[in-house]
Design brief:
The protein is of the alpha/beta class. The protein has a single domain, classed as Response regulator (Rossmann fold, 3-Layer(aba) Sandwich), CATH 3.40.50. The protein contains six helices and five strands, in the order E-H-E-H-E-H-E-H-H-E-H. A five-stranded parallel β-sheet has the order 2-1-3-4-5, sandwiched between helices. The longest helix has 14 residues. The radius of gyration is 14 Å and the shape is globular.
Length: 141
């Protein structure tokens, strides 16, 4: 089985590098982008098995906009949003209702900084849930 392809998008190059290294070490193929426009160009040439996006990039809603675009193009691609809203404001950004979760469209929202093992666990869980991974990462990957 080929490696699952993960799209990583963040306007902070350090975050892109850190997340990419974690996912690469987990046995995934990583395609990275430094913002929405670059990500949209990448989406024209490949279909990600999952995506890890920053919530706030060029605009405060850039992650939501990109998430909606990914879901429009590839409805079954799981999206994990990373956010520093909690660290900056003390407020959690997790959707409180099914209606809010439906609007957000992301399968998971994780607070930055995210621990490497937590990120790998969440990506793996989403890939298994969608049938894009039938075994734990690192075991036969």
């Amino acid at each position: 089985m080929s490696k699952a392809k993960i799209l990583v998008v963040d306007d902070d190059p350090d975050v892109v590098e850190q997340v990419s290294l974690v996912l690469d070490s987990g046995g995934y193929e990583v395609v990275s982008a430094g913002g929405v426009e670059e990500a949209e160009q990448a989406l024209l040439s490949f279909r990600p098995d999952a995506a890890v996006l920053d919530l706030m990039m060029e605009q405060q809603d850039s992650g939501f906009v990109l998430c909606h675009e990914i879901k429009r193009l590839y409805p079954d691609t799981p999206v994990i949003l990373l956010t520093s809203v909690k660290a900056a404001t003390g407020m959690s950004f997790e959707p409180a209702s099914a209606e809010q979760a439906g609007w957000v469209k992301a399968e998971k929202i994780l607070d930055k900084p995210v621990r490497p093992e937590q990120l790998l666990r969440e990506v793996e869980a989403q890939l298994v849930r969608t049938g894009k991974l039938s075994h734990p990462a690192g075991k036969g990957h």
